[in-house]
């Protein structure tokens, strides 16, 4: 989340009341303020929900993801991107949602690099939060075939470490749930020779009623790549302005380290329920070419 906010839960309840027609204050008929705090203004404009952040990201890149409409009526978004794995020392990369069209299933993100000193703003740590982690045992079928020439591997191999996280946030910029996947792999340009830290972390904010409904994860390795992936589904019966279910699902949040040092990340996200329209997404990468 973006720290520095001073908006409390009382204002959160007030903002939810803005969903009722006629309580939007000075907003025009075509523009309804759904929520507002010192860091962001959430606006409904036609079919679009727009997140107007006070802070502009430095040199942002706009990314548009076209989703698909599920038979149940929710939008399903999926993306997979491969980068060369390079990074600017002292920086990480953030993707944040700035607009969402639930009718046409269009998700618009802004991406930028930020200094590592700001990483704590996105670590998901809040009072009343819970996280669980799990490591996955990986048995590689290729290790036996790589024992020959081990000295050459040691001389030319590189070890890389990376992590990737998918996040849902509420209007007061609290991370309500996230799934983070970690990986360390050793590569030599033609093969992944070993890998460790196949692990995942599931996080949720109990303070507003979120809980982990289900989780799964795994890791694997071949000569061409090593990977960690995890799925988490989170429910809430009390969040928002009533007692109806709101839910999110992170399906196969995944990071893969390739034999040439490149990194592939992929994610599949959907949300649903009474107040899911007030949730938005962030993605955080530990390297800047993400």
Explain this structure.
This protein is mainly beta and 290 residues long. The chain has one domain. Helix content is 6%, strand content 53%. It is built from 2 helices and 17 strands. It has helices at residues 9-17, 150-156; strands at residues 32-36, 40-45, 48-53, 61-66, 68-69, 75-83, 91-101, 106-115, 129-135, 158-169, 175-187, 192-205, 211-221, 225-236, 246-258, 263-273, 280-285. Strands 1, 2, 3, 4, 7, 8, 9, 10, 11, 12 and 17 form an 11-stranded antiparallel β-sheet that branches. A hairpin with a 5-residue loop joins strand 10 (158-169) and strand 11 (175-187). The protein is globular. 35% of the residues are buried. Residues 1-28 and 143-155 have low confidence and may be disordered.
User: Tell me about the biggest sheet?
Assistant: 11 strands, antiparallel
Mean pLDDT over all positions: 85
By DSSP, the count of extended strands is 17
Query: Proportion of β residues?
Result: over 45%
How many structural domains? 1
Radius of gyration: 20 Å
Shape: globular
Low-confidence stretches: 1-28, 143-155
Sequence of secondary-structure elements: HEEEEEEEEEHEEEEEEEE
Helix content: under 10%
Structural class: mainly beta
List its salient traits.
290 residues, mainly beta, 2 helices, 17 strands, globular, disordered N terminus
């Amino acid at each position: 989340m973006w720290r520095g906010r001073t908006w409390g839960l009382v204002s959160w309840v007030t903002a939810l009341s803005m969903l009722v027609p006629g309580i939007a204050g000075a907003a025009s008929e075509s523009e309804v303020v759904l929520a507002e705090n010192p860091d962001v203004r959430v606006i409904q404009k036609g079919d679009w929900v727009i997140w107007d952040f006070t802070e502009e990201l430095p040199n942002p890149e706009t990314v548009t993801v076209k989703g698909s409409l599920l038979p149940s009526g929710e939008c399903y978004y999926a993306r997979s991107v491969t980068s060369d794995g390079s990074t600017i020392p002292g920086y990480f990369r953030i993707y944040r949602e700035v607009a969402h069209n639930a009718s046409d299933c269009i998700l618009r993100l802004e991406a930028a690099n930020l200094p590592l000193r700001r990483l704590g703003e996105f670590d998901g740590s809040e009072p009343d939060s819970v996280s669980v982690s799990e490591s996955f045992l990986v048995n590689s079928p290729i290790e036996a075939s790589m024992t020959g020439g081990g000295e050459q591997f040691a001389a030319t191999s590189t070890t890389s470490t990376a992590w990737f996280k998918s996040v849902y946030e509420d209007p007061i910029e609290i991370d309500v749930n996230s799934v983070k996947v970690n990986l360390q792999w050793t590569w030599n340009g033609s093969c992944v020779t070993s890998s460790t830290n196949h692990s995942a972390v599931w996080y949720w904010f109990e303070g507003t009623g979120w809980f982990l409904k289900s989780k799964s994860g795994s890791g694997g390795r071949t000569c061409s790549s090593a990977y960690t992936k995890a799925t988490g589904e989170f429910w809430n019966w009390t969040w928002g302005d009533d007692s109806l279910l709101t839910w999110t699902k992170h399906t196969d949040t995944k990071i893969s380290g390739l034999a040439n040092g490149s990194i592939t990340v992929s994610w599949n996200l959907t949300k649903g329920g009474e107040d899911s329209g007030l949730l938005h997404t962030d993605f955080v990468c530990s390297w800047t070419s993400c």
